[in-house]
Amino acid sequence: MLEIFDAFGNVRSDLDKLAAEIEQLDDVRREKLFGVVSANAAKREAEENLALARITVREREAAYHTALATRDKFNPPQTHQQALQAAIAANNGQTKPSADESLKKLADKVAALEKKTKADRKPEHEAELMAARKALAIARQPMVLAEANNALAAAQSNVVKASRALKDAERANGEAIAAWLSANTDRVTHESLVRDAAMRDAERALASKAKEPEPAGLRVWPLEQNLTARGAQKSKRVYFGR
Predict the structure, then answer these.
(1) Do residues 135 and 106 touch, judged by C-beta distance below 8 A?
(2) Which end of the chain has fewer CB atoms within 10 angstroms, the N or the C?
(3) φ, ψ for residue 211 (rounded to 5)?
(4) What kind and span of H or E run contains 167?
C-alpha cells in the first residue's frame, strides 16, 4: 500500500513523488486516494481557521480591557450623590441630554474650532481645540467600550463556529481514510505485524539454539559448580542433646 501519510498523520507534502505509483492504481483506489487528499486539506484549513480565530479573540480581549480601563479612568462610576441629584432633576422636569446629543454637540464644537484655528492660527484657539478634542474623546469612551465588547463577542462566536467546522472536517477526514484503507487489500494489518514479529522471534531462537554446543555428560547447574569450587558442599548436621 502506498505510504501517503507523514509522521503527523497528514497527507505527505511531497505526494507528487508517488505520481508513477498513483497512475498504476485502479480507478476505485485512485478515487479514494483523491478523497483523502481533499478531506485532509479541508481539515488542515479548518485547523488554521480555528488557530486564527483564537488569536483574534486574544487580541480583542486585550482591546476590550484597554477600553474598559480608559472608560473607568475618565468616566468613573456614578456616586450616590450624583444619582440623587439626577433623580431630583428628573422629578423637577430637568431632562439630561442623551449621549448621542452630547457627542454631536462636542463634535460640532471640534469642527468649528478646527475651521477657526486653521483660519487664524491663534494659540488660544489651538488650546481650546485641544481641550474640545479631549472632551470628545472622553465622551466617546462608553461607545468605544461597547464597540470593543461587540467585537469580542463576535470573535468568540467565530471560535465556536471554527471549532464545530473542525470537528466536521476531522470526521470527514477519518471517513475518507477508512475508505482508502478498506480499498487496499494489501495493507499492513495489526494481525500481520504480530505474526511477522512472532516468526522473527522463532527464527532467532532456532538460530541461537543451533549455535549452542551439544551437551556432554551429566548437566551440572552453575550453583552446584560454584559450591563445589568453593568446597562448601552441604555437610550433615550433628545434634548435641542431653
Answers:
(1) yes
(2) C
(3) -80, -15
(4) helix 141-183
User: What pLDDT score does 183 carry?
Assistant: 87
13 Cβ contact list (under 8 Å, min separation 6): 6
Angle at Cα 138 formed by Cα 135 and Cα 141, nearest 5°?
A: 150
What pLDDT is stored for residue 176 in this prediction?
A: 94
56 close to 158: Cβ distance less than 8 angstroms: yes
Query: Where does residue 203 rank: exposed (0-12), middle (13-18), buried (19+ CB within 10 A)?
Result: exposed
Rg (CA), the chain: 42
Which distant-in-sequence residues (6+ apart) come within 8 Å of 137 by Cβ? none
Under-50 pLDDT residues of the chain: none
Specify whether the CB–CB gap between 134 and 70 falls below 8 A.
Answer: no
Distance CA 160, CA 53 (A): 9
Nearest CA-CA partner of 117 in 130, 127, 126: 126
Cell 446629543 belongs to residue = 101
Stated pTM of the model:
0.59
> Would you list the DSSP string of 74-111?
HSPPPPHHHHHHHHHHHHTT-PPPPHHHHHHHHHHHHH
Polymer length in residues for the chain: 242
Q: How many CB atoms lie within 10 A of CB 207?
A: 9
Looking up cell 478498506 gives 182
Distances (CA, A) of 213 to 10, 177, 209, 223: 52, 53, 9, 20
